[in-house]
Amino acid sequence: MNESDSTWKHDGVRVIPAGSLDPNTAQTPGMDRKAAVDFARAGAQKLWAGTVSIHAGAKTGAHHHGPLESVIFIVRGQARMRWGERLEFVAEAGPGDFIFVPPFVPHQEINASDDETLECVLVRSDGQAIAVNLDIEPVEEPESVKWIDPVHPD
Predict the structure, then answer these.
(1) What gap in Å lies between CA 108 and CA 80, rounded to an integer?
(2) Which domains does the chain show, CATH number per domain?
(3) 127, exposed or middle or buried, with CB in 10 Å at 0-12, 13-18, 19+?
(4) Do 120 and 73 contact (CB within 8 A), yes or no?
């Protein structure tokens, strides 16, 4: 065995088993985040990845993730996202859908189902888990927004 073989053994690919995700990460009321990949656990320099669960009928508090970009992939359930200065915009996503949240955008995740847990995979653009909880008085009736693909518009 040469020197590079032993380096890659522990500094190469890492498989993080589902049962070993870390719940000791930044939390927002109404959801359970668990870290899979970050700097401390896997040496990730430019991303954070983990899972998010929101119980049936629950919603998170309003929050943002500072300068980080976030991608949420819906594995199971129905997500309702509200965003904006007063959470005045809303859209829904289901299994197989992706949600992109730009830096500093105030948002709230809502489980649109009263019967099923919302299960998601979350990836952020840095190895740290920033969650800034906000005190926002939301509008009563948010405006529904449909995403339009700028590359392939209908």
Answers:
(1) 8
(2) 31-136 (2.60.120.10)
(3) buried
(4) yes
